[in-house]
Amino acid sequence: MQETRLDTARIRAARRVIDPIFLDTPLYRCEALEPALGCTVSIKLETANPVRSFKARGTEVVASMLAADGRRAVVCASAGNLGQALAWSGRGRGLDVTVVASRFAPAAKLDRIRALDAVLELVDGDFDMARERAAAVARYDGIRLVEDSLDIETCEGAATIGLELVDSVHSFDAVLIALGGGALATGVGHVVKACAPEVEVICVQPLGAPAMTYSWRQRRVVTTDSTDTIADGVAGRRPIPAVLDDLLLVADDAVLVQEASIIAGMRMLLHHAGLVVEPSAALGIAAILEDRDRFAGRHVVTIVCGSNVDVDAYHRWVGAAPPTGLT
């Protein structure tokens, strides 16, 4: 495999600084999902931790390095999950954490950021506007800006999931990874291609937030003017060039799925796996629903990456009648 920005030795070392509460998350075959999906399905559950997403694997690495360097303040932009994770990791290491987010982000995520003692600044725009504001705060205050996916620590923290996959699953044919900024996809993809190159790495993004998928397909950065998806955790408009370069080296495919399939995936994970998940975490199931023939008879791992979801919105989505052909 050609070299990405990631390093397998550093990824293994990251496990030593990540709080064990975020490591060795459940990985199990979910037979209840299989009749409807037509393939063997294993779930890597990244929601059973204090911040209910995979993001703390990366922020633990970032916060450990900052604390070791004597830094005392940090800022990030977040759609919600990174902010919670950085607040949790920073609080435990004496860091002052500022999170910039859209005021239209799910209230549950914003409330949790505040509860973790971070300073929360809201902008009247989307995640990419929050990124611009966070960069301005970092420049003005002279503090460290954490940029998810661009900062290699966030990718290598997420990559520890890949180590657990290749060390625990005897054999699997494909891994389905939610694609947003790219930390999860490039991190897990790097490890899988280094250790199990025969496994297909498939990234999944909503049709209403396709910038990174379009960029992967055209092998150049493609931006969009807006996003329109319930999967707020992956709703970016401006891919980061360095992250795209890494993704091009590790991803075998990038697919787009419809909103109805995301909702159907959330409903299936609730009814058949007993899991309440946010929309981004259902992207893998959505991809199988939209292309059953592709996955028929194969062993597929899907990373359930987050469960920070607004309760009222969740009930609206999952409680609605399923579209024809989707359960």
Keywords for this structure?
four-stranded parallel sheet; 10 strands
Structural features, described:
The protein has 327 residues and is of the alpha/beta class. It has 14 helices and ten strands. It has helices spanning 8-14, 34-37, 56-68, 81-91, 107-115, 127-141, 152-168, 183-195, 211-218, 241-250, 259-273, 283-290, 292-295, 311-318, and strands at residues 27-29, 40-45, 73-77, 96-102, 119-123, 144-146, 174-178, 200-206, 253-257, 299-304. A six-stranded mixed beta sheet has the order 1-2-10-7-8-9. Helix 5 links the parallel strand 4 and strand 5. It is globular, with a radius of gyration of 18 Å. The mean pLDDT is 95.
Structure described in brief:
With 327 residues, this protein is an alpha/beta fold. The chain has helices at residues 8-14, 34-37, 56-68, 81-91, 107-115, 127-141, 152-168, 183-195, 211-218, 241-250, 259-273, 283-290, 292-295, 311-318, and strands at 27-29, 40-45, 73-77, 96-102, 119-123, 144-146, 174-178, 200-206, 253-257, 299-304. The strands form 2 sheets. Strands 1-2-10-7-8-9 form a 6-stranded mixed beta sheet. The chain has a 4-stranded parallel beta sheet with strand order 5-4-3-6, with helices on both faces.
How is this fold's topology laid out?
Layout: H1 8-14, E1 27-29, H2 34-37, E2 40-45, H3 56-68, E3 73-77, H4 81-91, E4 96-102, H5 107-115, E5 119-123, H6 127-141, E6 144-146, H7 152-168, E7 174-178, H8 183-195, E8 200-206, H9 211-218, H10 241-250, E9 253-257, H11 259-273, H12 283-290, H13 292-295, E10 299-304, H14 311-318
Parallel strand pairs: 2-10, 3-4, 3-6, 4-5, 7-8, 7-10, 8-9
Antiparallel strand pairs: 1-2
